[in-house]
Design goal:
Layout (H helix, E strand, L loop, with lengths): L1 H55 L5 H4 L3 E5 L4 H12 L3 E6 L6 H11 L3 E5 L8 H9 L4 E7 L15 H29 L2 E6 L12 H21 L4 E6 L12 H4 L7 H9 L7 E2 L3 H13 L10
Parallel strand pairs: 1-2, 1-4, 2-3, 4-5, 5-6, 6-7
Length: about 325
């Protein structure tokens, strides 16, 4: 009994001497909880505005908004092909620009037949061959190009340390994802600016915001495309050009894993991903493009202080 009385006496003494501090800590805790709640509420509102409201509104006529033709670079990538197919469903004709030894002639022919649109296939190693730009310029001549889609090379997603990657491969990744995408944008932009409308969509990857070991080249290449998109939007949005950076997490077709084992809610097929992503066009210039991936970003934002995640949904 004496021990119990001593404990209560000690507790009263501590409460009396620390009462002011406890009240301060309670206020601090309440403010922190309120700030987290405000952030959560804001992110939920943005999630609805970016990913749900546009899909509830009747479909926009992309041809009238942006133009009759689209250019797709990195067309051998599944996500790029899915984006091209979605644009073709909206009636846009497509110019496919491929590099290396990619052969997508069958896909291009099937797309033209299935959707009744014109398609042009151009092989141009823009990152290596100075004369390649002339081939692209000739393909663009006289066409109302309102779309440019640049897609990161998924071959650089395989987990490998930097010292394990050959010098030739490093040059290829840089040439295709940095030089090629930048040069093609430079070739397409003058026509868009002349008409006062257009969209540049750069599809990269969320790892640019969270670099990890074994993903050095992926983080670097996607980071460049992300910053390139943001700078383009700041520079040309006032002149009618909408530049968008798409930063998806896992897509089922990714070369990192077999599609059959990853397809699902958090790893959509390219077709499902693109249907969601294209609805954010003109709404958000930097987004995951897919609302479950945005939930992952919101989780990062809620519990971590990674500032790279804080300005896109």
């Amino acid at each position: 009994m004496a021990a119990v009385d001593s404990f209560h006496l000690l507790y009263r003494e501590i409460s009396r001497s620390c009462g002011g501090y406890l009240e301060t800590l309670a206020v601090v805790g309440a403010l922190y909880t309120a700030s987290r709640a405000v952030i959560l509420l804001r992110d939920c509102c943005v999630l609805v505005r970016v990913h749900f409201l546009p899909r509830m509104i009747p479909g926009r006529k992309l041809r009238q908004t942006y133009g009759d033709w689209a250019v797709v670079y990195g067309a051998s990538e599944p996500v790029a092909q899915a984006y091209a197919e979605e644009l073709a469903q909206h009636g846009l004709s497509i110019i496919f620009v491929t590099y290396g030894r990619c052969n997508i002639a069958d896909f291009v022919a099937n797309l033209s037949q299935s959707h009744g649109v014109e398609t042009i296939l151009v092989h141009a190693d823009l990152g290596w061959d100075k004369a390649a730009s002339k081939v692209v310029v000739e393909a663009l001549r006289g066409k109302d190009v309102g779309f440019l889609v640049n897609c990161v090379d998924e071959a650089c997603t395989s987990p490998r340390e930097l010292v394990e990657i050959s010098e030739q491969r490093l040059m290829e990744v840089t040439a295709n994802n940095v030089v090629g995408a930048t040069l093609l944008t430079r070739l397409v932009l003058p026509g868009m600016l002349e008409r006062g409308r257009g969209a540049v969509v750069n599809i990269s990857s969320a790892p640019c915001c969270m670099p990890t070991p074994g993903r050095v080249m992926l983080s670097a290449a996607t980071g460049y495309l992300d910053q390139f998109s943001r700078a383009l939007h700041l520079e040309y949005s006032a002149r009618g050009i909408f530049a968008q950076s798409l930063l998806p997490f896992q897509v089922a077709s990714s070369s990192q894993r077999p599609a059959s084992s990853t397809e699902g809610w958090l790893a959509p097929t390219p077709q499902v991903y693109v249907r969601h992503a294209i609805s954010t066009l003109g709404v958000s210039n930097r987004t995951t493009g897919y609302w479950p991936h945005t939930l992952l970003v919101g989780t990062q934002h809620l519990f971590h202080t990674n500032t790279c995640f804080m300005d896109y949904l």
